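URGENT: need a sanity check before tomorrow's submission.

F., can you look over the RNA polymerase sigma-70 region 2 domain-containing protein record below? I want to be sure the sequence and structure line up before it goes out.
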Amino acid sequence: MRIECKKVIGCRPRTSVAARAWRELSDDDLAWLASRGEQKAFQRLVERYCSAVYSMVDRRVCDAGTAERIVIEVFRTAWHELRVPPYRRGFLVLLAEAVAAALHRHDTR
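Structure tokens as predicted:
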């Protein structure tokens, strides 16, 4: 799954009834759906957290291009980990682990 972080940052949620229903789901509900292959659920998680993850990574690496590559790697890792059964952890824990691993790899280069 390819994630375009620049397109996600700053995008506004749609206001349809279906979009409102997706927004009302908890992170863990969305992660559970994503773990079963529901890409729309994962996209909603990306929309919720891409900006925050990007800001954190950008402060650490001080280079926009590198930060974007790390963020894409983080969400790619999260997508992969969600698909490995059984999904039990909270999505934020999973995301934090992915960010930490990506930053560690960057720091050791």
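My own read: Confidence is low (pLDDT under 50) at residues 6-15. The domain at 5-107 is CATH 1.10.1740.10 (Rna Polymerase Sigma Factor; Chain: A). If you see anything odd, call me.
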